[in-house]
Amino acid sequence: MINVEGLGRDPININIQATEEECKSLADGLGIIGLFGVVMSGVLRRQKKTDKIEVSAVLKAQAVQACVVTLEPVPQAIEVEFTVYYTFAKEDVVSDEVDYVVGMNEEDLPELIVNGQIDAIDIVAEQIALALDSYPRKENDTPVKNTKDAGETETEAVQEVHRPFANLRDLMNKK
After folding, report:
1. Alpha-carbon distance 109 to 84, whole Å?
2. Is residue 10 classed as helix, strand or coil in its secondary structure?
3. Cα-flanking dihedrals φ and ψ of residue 6, to 5°?
4. Which of 102, 111, 127 is nearest to 30 (CA)?
5. Interhelix angle for 120-131 vs 20-30, to 10°?
6. 68-102: b or e for each residue (b if 16 or more CB lie within 10 Å)?
7. pTM to 2 decimals?
8. pLDDT tens-digit profile of 118-140?
9. Which tens digit of pLDDT belongs to each residue from 42-51?
10. Hey, how many other C-beta atoms are within 10 angstroms of the C-beta on 140?
């Protein structure tokens, strides 16, 4: 937890290195095989105009996920640079009940600071989740294509395809 209640205008450098237990807990929470070498370093500062708290950092980690084809371990190096915002004011945070879409060129909505503290583990978990490969694949794994049933020839499989406009040319020529 990072205490930001008494944060002044001077930025604070943050350097966080997750322990082996924290890495295991993060991996379990993310539903992946493993997570190693999680390091986050950056700056925490209060914005002058908006009074929001800004966390700008670089996150590095080594993740291991299961291949979507073979379930074999697939390693992935993660290195992301990010900025997240926090606020003390509840009115700056959009309610969960309201549908709100953030545009590509807009800042993300700030998170609400609870009890004057920001949870660094939540920041790390969110950034790793965003950086993980959605469909990890072991190199040289190709999906098995099952286009026909056993004993069925290729021409029979093609003939079963429904073609709604196949006879359209014949109908147009009859006119």
Report:
1. 9
2. coil
3. -100, 20
4. 127
5. 50
6. eeeeeebeeebeeebebbbbeeeebeeeeeeeeee
7. 0.65
8. 778 888 888 888 888 888 887 76
9. 988 887 777 7
10. 5
